[in-house]
Amino acid sequence: GDSVTQMEGPVTLSEEAFLTINCTYTATGYPSLFWYVQYPGEGLQLLLKATKADDKGSNKGFEATYRKETTSFHLEKGSVQVSDSAVYFCALTSSGSRLTFGEGTQLTVNP
Amino acid sequence: DAGVIQSPRHEVTEMGQEVTLRCKPISGHDYLFWYRQTMMRGLELLIYFNNNVPIDDSGMPEDRFSAKMPNASFSTLKIQPSEPRDSAVYFCASSGGWRNTEAFFGQGTRLTVV
User: Fold this and answer.
1) Which candidate, A78, A82, A83, A90, places its Cα nearest to that of A36?
2) What is the per-residue DSSP string for A42-90?
3) Which of A61, B45, B50, B71 is the most buried (most CB within 10 A)?
4) Over the stretch A27-69, which tens digit does the pLDDT of each residue have?
5) Which of 32-61 (A) contact B at CB < 8 A?
6) CA A58 to CA A53: how far, in whole Å?
7) Do B95 and A103 touch (CB under 8 A)?
């Protein structure tokens, strides 16, 4: 079945540091890939997505590229801010609209 | 649209009591999902509906859990009887269908069973 594996957290960075959160997946066919973000006390919200190989999703300075050859969708940001502190989830859909989520990675950014 | 609306936001109940969580999806969305989030198990899909019909309930932990969607604008998740290990945040989400359409999440119901 489908599965998503994220790098283990938590991740703690200083403000303006470079961020990478690794995500790899296993799926049948050609999945669509997503990154969701969850701020404290809130539900998940879509951060970015990519629907086919080599697509790059981007939003709020975050980027991720759909790499079919390595089955990866790593999240990056060049300079993180304190306000980026949240839990980040990698996810995919490969059949219908059912989302399969990774375990989530807690990011804390210190001033 | 106000987004996915869940109620209540917080629920504290005693073990053995019945608990009903409610969800109003975004108008026009064909899919509705119920998730449970805990520190130990992360985010788990409990059940999802398409056009008000349950498609996959394999994530429902046991017979104490049941979910209904009587119409396109309302769904409930019921736990009877509730147990302390059911304490979690329960999220409802909806999407317009097709595999590349994002799911929109409600703010969740934090359930505490004492």
Assistant:
1) A90
2) S-EEEEEEE-STT-EEEETTEEEE-BTTTTB--EEESS--GGG-EEEEE
3) B45
4) 988 899 999 999 988 899 999 999 999 999 999 999 999 999 9
5) 32, 34, 41-46, 49, 51
6) 15
7) no
